[in-house]
Amino acid sequence: MPPVEMVGTNGIELAVYEAGSGPAVVLLHGFPGLAYTWRHQIPALVDAGYRVIVPDLRGYGLSDAPDDVEDYDIADLTGDVAGMLDSLDVDEAVFVGHDWGGLLAWQMALFHEERTTGVVSFNTPHIPHWGLWLHNDLVAPVLGDQDDFTADPGRDPIAQMREVYRPGMYVLMFQDGDTADTAMNSDPEGTLRGALRKDLGTPESWDQMPAELKNMEYYGQPAPAQFPGQDVLSAEELDFYVSQYARTGFTPAINWYRNISRNWQAGLEVDQMVRVPSLMISAENDVVLRPSMTDGMDALVPDLEKHVIADTWHWTPEERPVEANRIVLDWLDRTFPR
Fold it and tell me: Where is the AB hydrolase-1 domain (predicted)?
């Protein structure tokens, strides 16, 4: 990783890792990630002639973590990124996100289009009005023959999720008290090993799994005696993640989820069309952010290119860095020739 610098933005300080020169590319990690998520992408982008800017986002890693839940809404999160660009004297950038970072990258295009040259999203499709977890590809396996549910972008998505999923569904569990926080904070290594896994099956096989898996009851559970699938991280990489979350805990990161209703409300009058060049990179075997969920996305993202990386689960930048880097660099070169 490049040296870290504390950068003042939007009333807090973010830990920012920066390297290279040229057009700016900002890398936005997901949950439970860190700037370190992008360790394989940074040198490839620098070697290709880009200025690479990689923050630990609000509540993560070495960055500030405000106490109030409301300090993690989308206005704050996008404001942090825009303010970071101001502090670094950058007018605009391509935003590359994974998981929650993908959600944030799409929101930058909606709330700060003038700062957004383009968007690259790993795994996370653009679904308007925070309807990601209400997509029919996720809802249908849960409801089965009772599936007469239709998501309504005009209703609070958390309220709708309560109509579909059991209370242990991870997004709902994060809304309801601190049971998940307590369990996860008591065992950072088990939480991270349980989350950062691969080779766990396919979307089709997942739909035949027990109800707790279809309901996405992933976090806040005791670590199993034997983890399924394979580790994404080496022992050394896992140690780095654990060292960061052992210090910060998971609560600040979970607070991002606790603002979904507020974010939905804030975006009701915001046009959901993404008007910048965009690249969507899906993972063939991601059982939550499924490639099929990008079908029809070009209606909201007219300048869209899509790729699917084969035999890959959820942690695409870390699982398949060579293929991920190749796709991103090729798209950047063709879309923004220099």
Answer: 23-128
Catalytic residue among 72, 165, 170, 257: 257
Per-residue pLDDT, 206: 81
Select which of 76, 99, 181, 286 is catalytic.
Answer: 99
Q: What is the CATH number of the domain that holds 27?
A: 3.40.50.1820
Q: What angle do CA 91, 95, 96 make, to 5 degrees?
A: 155
Is 314 considered catalytic here? yes
Residue 141's Cα: distance from chain center in Å?
A: 23
Confidence of residue 302 (pLDDT cuts 50, 70, 90): very high
170 and 200 in contact (C-beta within 8 Å)?
Answer: no
In this predicted model, what pLDDT tens digit does every residue of 8-55 receive, in sequence order?
A: 999 999 999 999 999 999 999 999 999 999 999 999 999 999 999 999
Task: Evaluate whether 197 touches 228 at the Cβ level (below 8 Å).
Answer: yes
CB 85 within 8 A of CB 115: yes
Q: Which two tokens stand for residue 274?
A: 């993404």
- Domain shared by 280 and 317, yes or no: yes
Q: Which of 98, 126, 135, 314 is catalytic?
A: 314
Print the domain residue range for 184. Answer: 132-259
Q: Which two tokens stand for residue 161?
A: 């999720």
Same-domain status, 318 and 171: no
The pLDDT tens digits for 181-233 are 999 999 999 999 999 999 988 888 888 888 888 888 888 887 788 888 999 99
Inter-CA distances, 276 with 108, 115, 118, 271, 294, Å: 11, 10, 5, 13, 17
Residue 99 annotated to the active site: yes
Is 257 assigned a catalytic role? yes
